[in-house]
Design a protein that fits this description.
The protein has 4 helices and 17 strands. It has helices at 19-27, 73-76, 104-114, 195-199; strands at residues 32-39, 45-48, 53-56, 82-92, 98-103, 124-133, 136-140, 146-150, 171-179, 184-187, 207-216, 219-225, 228-232, 242-252, 257-269, 286-288, 299-301.
């Protein structure tokens, strides 16, 4: 069974007209989703199921809450966000109203055993960006289970912070780079095209938009696409992250070089652009970024 990041599969979000419908969903073991209305002082999560209110007890909020390996902030941060769960049963509150007792932890355990444990290095899956830190992007890889894309695996073109490439809440595709007993590490750059695939969109003599990524004494590195950067001649009064218009002087595949000239700069910081994926496969054993004739070979071997 395939599991998706929370909030991605809208078919799981339902409002029930009766308790009997919820009981049927419980008997059938359905996975459901709803937005968290509040996290109470005991860190139980409350959701609206339509016919009744549902409660996810703290220990059922996530795998790892019971043993302390996951902190309670992981529950508090879910307010006004979609979470997945199954129905465990029912009980009455102090006002004799029916409450549905739910478990997010049960869905996560199913996701681990039925989906994540079956993945191998090179598998491509759907993910959702949940949080950005200077060292990388945290992603939901299924049922609210988090993993990391290190910053150097977000693209070939280097960036100083993941927010230059991604935004929180963004749905993306990722590839499993390394699988260990206690964690999985994912990558994005292998899905964003080779040097030749990206360079084919640019021709000598064109003037195009780029983003300043690095300023060196010998030139300015300008990103033309997430997996492609060129070198412009030195110029004063530019800053990293700035949008610029550049003239393409030459494209040299054998050296993986694109020579540029900055013709105009704009006093604004570039925002992340929509990602373009150059593959629709669900698995990759080997990816070679560099052209065959290039003396410098850049590749990823997922079978190693």
């Amino acid at each position: 069974m395939k599991f998706y990041p929370e909030g991605k599969n809208q078919d799981l979000s339902r409002q029930f007209d009766s308790v009997d419908e919820i009981k049927t969903a419980m008997i059938q073991g359905e996975i459901l989703e709803s937005k968290v209305l509040l996290c109470d002082r005991e860190h139980n999560l409350h959701v609206d199921l339509g016919a009744v209110r549902g409660i996810i007890p703290r220990v059922e909020g996530a795998v790892g809450i019971d043993d302390g390996s996951v902190r309670d902030i992981a529950l508090i941060s879910k307010v006004n966000k979609s979470v997945c769960f199954t129905v465990l049963g029912f009980q009455k509150d102090i006002y004799n109203n029916s409450l549905a007792i739910l478990s997010r932890r049960a869905v996560q355990l199913r996701c681990i055993h039925e989906f994540l444990d079956t993945l191998v290095e090179g598998d491509v899956i759907d993910a959702r960006v949940t949080h950005l830190e200077k060292f990388g992007a945290f992603i939901d890889i299924g049922a609210g289970i988090n993993a990391l894309i290190p910053i150097d695996m977000l693209s070939v073109s280097r960036i100083s912070h993941p927010n230059e490439r991604l935004t929180e809440g963004q749905n993306i595709k990722v590839i499993l780079r390394k699988k260990e007993p206690s964690k999985m590490t994912f990558s994005l750059k292998e899905l964003l095209g080779t040097w030749e695939e990206n360079a084919s969109k640019f021709s000598q003599g064109e003037t195009v938009t780029g983003v300043v990524r690095s300023i060196e004494d010998y030139g300015i590195f300008v990103e033309l696409a997430p997996n492609l950067a060129g070198l412009a001649e030195p110029q004063d009064n530019l800053f990293v992250g700035q949008q610029v218009a550049v003239y393409v002087k030459s494209v040299i595949p054998a050296k993986m070089k694109i020579k540029l000239v900055v013709v105009e700069s704009f006093n604004e910081t570039a925002k992340p652009t929509p990602l373009t994926y150059y593959t629709d496969c669900c698995h990759m054993d080997f990816w070679q970024y560099s052209p065959a004739e290039s003396p410098k070979q850049i590749y990823t071997d997922f079978t190693e």
